[in-house]
Amino acid sequence: MSAEDRGFDRHMLEALVCPVTKAQLRYDLAAQELISRPAHLAFPIRNGIPVMLVDEAREIE
């Protein structure tokens, strides 16, 4: 299933950066998250919309 089928436009990744570090994000299709490795955060994608709020992010190793 492509990102578009799930409702998330991967072209949006070019415009999005981590709100904490301003680093590039990595799209995790299986988890439906945008990953910021420098900030150790995973931002959820809900209904095709990235939720770029630190309070909504999940800490990752």
Automatic annotation (TrEMBL):
Belongs to the UPF0434 family. Pfam families: Trm112p. This is UPF0434 protein M3N55_03130. InterPro entries: Trm112-like. It comes from Roseinatronobacter domitianus.
